[in-house]
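not sure who needs this but someone in the group chat was asking about Outer membrane lipoprotein-sorting protein from Marinobacter nauticus so here u go. i didnt clean anything up, its just raw.
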Amino acid sequence: MRYNKNAFFGGLLALSFAAAPVHAGVSAAEANRLGQDLTPFGSIKAGNEAGTIPAWTGGLTEPPAGYEGSGQHHINPFPDDQVLFTITASNMEQYDEYLTDGVRAMLRTYPTTFRIPVYQSRRTHAVPDWVAENTRKNAVNAEIVGQAEGLSGAFGGYPFPILHGTDEEKAWQVVWNHLTRWRGISVTRRSSEVAVQTNGDYGLVTSQQEAFFNFYNPEGGEADLDNVIFYYLSFTQSPPRLAGGAILIHETLNQIINPRNGWGYNAGQRRVRRAPNLGYDSPIAAADNLRTADDTDIFNGAMDRYNWNYEGMREIYIPYNNYRIGERGTPYSEILGISHLNPDLTRWELHRVHVVEATLKEGERHIYGKRRFYVDADSWNTVLLDQYDGRGELWRVTMGIPKNYYELPGVWTVLDVYHDLQARRYHVLGLDTEESGTRVFTDDVPNKRYFSPASLRRRSVR
């Protein structure tokens, strides 16, 4: 992929950002650490002193034997790995320094059913060479605009592989790395989401989803972004009361000057309408109000309602390399427990994470008064998120359940899970083991008219 530095300035003018960049990137000498003592995406290449986190040696870039290509449910590349030990409510104090408040709360809330099976740590994240090359250039050129409203000087890779500046600026950089992380170029899949009630009952909402990650457009550059990070389409297929509906999203790079653009198609009215409430804490009906608009993808959207602080790096147990829970043919009834996922199908490992805390600004409104992010230092996926109510009580515990998609390659979540500790219910996004296939990744670059409101209506009425 070509990376044209002149495109940065054209992109900055095209976006017409109201605020100026707040600081420059790192020096070229500092950026040269990428691929040396740091991985190409900015994490520490060496293992930890105790030997419980291994060195990164290139990640997982080749599929195991028998894998036939994108869209096939993934074959577990580590079938012989065994559980090293299991953390439960009765022994959690022994592992306290490696647990988050949210995980501790899950163990205490569901002491007889929730547990953490810990496996050996495998650092499987990897990116294509062109993403690594762009990341190195972003390290020098990328800048945050204003109070984290947007970016300039970044395209086709992680914007901030090497954190720098104040703790507030580092926090912004971590979140921007999450928002723009590598997840391929184009992807489609059919999957279901469920809201599980206190008695274990649930109803599936099944949809066909398509996304084009414009930030990684191999035929473009920053000047071509037109303030859009990615395009997203979702067509609801069941249950019958929702079937035929659709939603279109243009996820903007600067959501202050141009908030997220969204349109919905109502099958009964056969009309496309603007969707005005697709940000912040707007409730998501299909999630039975267990997920807000900015909970989707663990976190998305504008950061302006919170004060942000970087709290450093920790070693904690997080979900990782979760292949068993995505195996084709596994019944949803086996995956979904009454209060949480079946722990026997999950895999947890010790990894380094960046910790970021967001506290609601005085005078701003959001149902979450505080949020604490735990972001995988390798992949920049937010894998755990603790969310507090206005009284300061831990309310919701969100988990991204990731694995390496070796056809990309890269680590991304299999399922996103939202636990409401007060209501004792939970919500799951991404179920597809009962489908004939899983995510299909391609390098196709669609015509952007494909993601237009007019196209949404034409495709919905077919």
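also The chain has one domain: 83-460. if thats useful
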